[in-house]
Write a structure and sequence with these properties.
It contains 3 helices and 12 strands. By secondary structure, it is α+β, with helices and mostly antiparallel strands. The chain has one domain.
Length: 175
């Protein structure tokens, strides 16, 4: 029985590097048994991510970050509406602006633009924003970089729109 009660250590086997104003950001991830990613770097805090466009989750330095889906009414042009995350007194928002594009805002001010790929909309893709590139604005701090990069990894960049959503639904249905 003691073997079953021990904590299991998870080693994240794959990694990607991303650029930021504070140097390289390392994104370690694994797709088995549970999809999990970790965003960290020398000058930025570590953020653990459970990616999913619908119910993704974030934890910064071990503390859960409340995230919610923005609901501004029904919009047939967007699959995923924006997402917000509250870290202390800061409100971060990931807002889709096009098919593979999104903006990241901190308390309403633009901090980064994300450019994703069409591959991220595949029904077999478990980490929607792993290929996204971010271009940063001036005046960001390490927490902004960590949370913004983690939100893009968790929820993806952009939204496929109504036609793309319909096509991906039928593609997913037949597979």
């Amino acid at each position: 029985m003691s073997v079953l009660n021990k904590r299991r250590k998870v080693h994240l086997s794959q990694q990607r590097m991303a650029d930021s104003p504070f140097g390289s950001v390392r994104i370690n991830y694994d797709r088995w048994p549970t999809v999990i990613a970790r965003v960290h770097g020398e000058a930025i805090p570590a953020v653990t991510v459970m990616p999913d466009r619908e119910v993704g989750a974030l934890a910064i330095n071990g503390q859960n970050v409340p995230t919610k889906r923005n609901s501004r009414g029904w919009d047939p042009r967007r699959k995923a509406r924006g997402r917000t995350a509250l870290v202390g007194d800061r409100g971060y928002e990931l807002r889709p602006t096009g098919l593979c594009r999104a903006e990241l805002r901190r308390n309403g001010a633009l901090i980064a633009r994300a450019q994703g790929t069409l591959r991220s909309y595949s029904p077999f893709r478990t980490i929607p924003g792993i290929d996204a590139k971010l271009s940063w604005s001036q005046g960001v701090d390490p927490t902004d970089v960590a949370v913004a990069q983690a939100m893009v990894v968790a929820f993806g960049a952009g939204a496929p729109g109504a036609l793309g959503r319909c096509f991906l639904f039928w593609l997913d249905f037949f597979n």
